[in-house]
TrEMBL record:
Domain Response regulatory span(s) in chain numbering: 2-116
GO BP: any one term: regulation of DNA-templated transcription
Keyword check for Transcription: yes
Gene: czcR
Classification via SUPFAM superfamilies: C-terminal effector domain of the bipartite response regulators, CheY-like
Key words of the record: DNA-binding, Phosphoprotein, Transcription, Transcription regulation, Two-component regulatory system
Species annotation: Aquisphaera giovannonii
GO cellular component: cytosol; protein-DNA complex
Occurrences of domain OmpR/PhoB-type (ranges): 124-222
Modified residues (4-aspartylphosphate): D51
DNA-binding region per Swiss-Prot/TrEMBL record: 124-222
SMART domains (UniProt xref): REC, Trans_reg_C
Protein's name in the database: Transcriptional activator protein CzcR
Pfam families: Response_reg, Trans_reg_C
Amino acid sequence: MKLLLVEDDRKTGAYLCKGLVEAGFTVDLASRGDDGLHLASGGDYDLVVLDVMLPGRDGWSIVAELRKAGRDTPILFLTAMDAVSDRVRGLDLGADDYLVKPFAFSEFLARVRSVIRRGSARQSQVYRIADLEVDTVRLAASRSGRKLELTPKEFGLLALLSRRAGDVLSRTLIAEQVWDMNFDSDSNVVDVHIRRLRAKVDDPFPTKLIHTVRGAGYVLEVRG
């Protein structure tokens, strides 16, 4: 799952990014409010974690602008502003939760998962393609009722292919969405992970779902 973290404190941002990545998330980090709004407006995020006091644009106006534009991405405020009036304001603007600094990372992670689960009412959370089932909230996948043991990156790759089932996805798009990196034509990271994913998702089963489209990329679909 992909998160956007808008946090101007470098130490806090690095700490949260490290913990979230270790928990299996892909994270984009913005240190300015205007950059955060730009990313949140155009990116496909499962959650936005947002400070209030930011350079360029404050968190209040970011939430207001996103909701005004019809963006229903779940939002978690993470801020040192602890007055009841601040919490009420954040929730009234359209945020889904409000956590005050300082905080325990375990609570923060629980809040992140809770907000994503609640937000699943607005977003599809389970994708089914033939006998494959991918649950993007529980971070679980199975085929023919058999649980698939996937690494966080393998699950992120499978979730992306499942959300876009039937669409041919380029290596560049996959690298950007799953690894948050610009694709280097000399790098085979996408192809290597596709091979590893096929070994778990396709090889043990008669019907193959992950297909190569020569010169274009990969697609998850039922053929024949």
